[in-house]
Amino acid sequence: MVNEDKLLEYLKKVTLELHETKQRLRETEATGGEPIAVVGMACRFPGGVDSPEGLWRLLADGVDAMGAFPVDRGWELSDDIADGFAPVGGFLDGAADFDAGLFGIAPREALAMDPQQRLLLEVAWDSLERAGIAPLSLRGAPVGVFVGTNGQDYGALLAASAESVEGYGATGNSGSVLSGRVSYVLGLEGPAVTVDTACSASLVALHQAAQALRSGECSLALAGGVTVMSTPGAFAEFAAQSGLAGDGRC
Fold first, then answer.
1. For the sheet containing 192-195, what is the strand order?
2. Phi/psi of residue 89, each to 5°?
3. Has residue 171 been placed in a domain?
């Protein structure tokens, strides 16, 4: 009789655990298809766009955001490089502008930072404010940062510069720090991931952010991408491959 009682208790326990396991499995499967809520957006684009509303107006009005090469980046193209393609592209206005003091960054460190890092900090801050979230209120929270990149060429300018940025050059021009810088400055403790899959990088970053949210790796995520061309090197390379349209349009 004692053995039968023990067996009965064991079967009850196993049945309960099986029921709980099935319930957790159903919850996990349901979470996998749960919609992701976009609660805030911010952006900077060629054509003077500095907000989602500005981007909408540019698209709705059919504005051509392509323009001449920027005059504030010190670009000099030799005749042999410039031959065969139009010096036209999509460029951000004031790409070098940065409110370093807002983020507690010293001027010398700010100079060493790739403009892409600076831009990400400002747009991340703007995005959170647009969501009604005080950026510094997230310190210590499981918030992820997922960034798509397409390369870094600012280091070449620093190497040729007479400015001293010793101690800041490595972190200022590392691809991994694009996401890490945002996490560090805001004190976020979720995943910090930088991906480079060329033209699809931003989309991949968004995909990874959605996966991280659904798996519970983070409760909130910042996702996006950034490209600031500090040198005309990409134009020179594509021109050598005859990979650019003659009129600067695709």
1. 192-195, 143-148, 220-225
2. -170, 180
3. yes
pLDDT in tens, 92-103: 998 889 999 999
Whether residue 74 contacts residue 96, with contact meaning beta carbons closer than 8 Å, is answered with no
Q: Which two tokens stand for residue 60?
A: 């709705």
| Containing structural domain, residue 8 | 1-33
Tabulate helix, strand, coil % of the chain (nearest 5). Answer: 50, 10, 40
CA atoms within 13 A on the CB side of 113: 25
248 within some domain: no
Q: What is the pLDDT of the chain when averaged over all its residues?
A: 88
pLDDT digits (tens, 9 = 90+) for 7-42: 777 777 878 888 888 887 777 666 667 789 999 999
Look at residue 39 and tell me if it is in a domain. no
CA distance linking residue 29 with residue 21, whole number of Å: 12
Contact yes or no for 232/72 (Cβ under 8 A): no
Strands 192-195 and 143-148: parallel
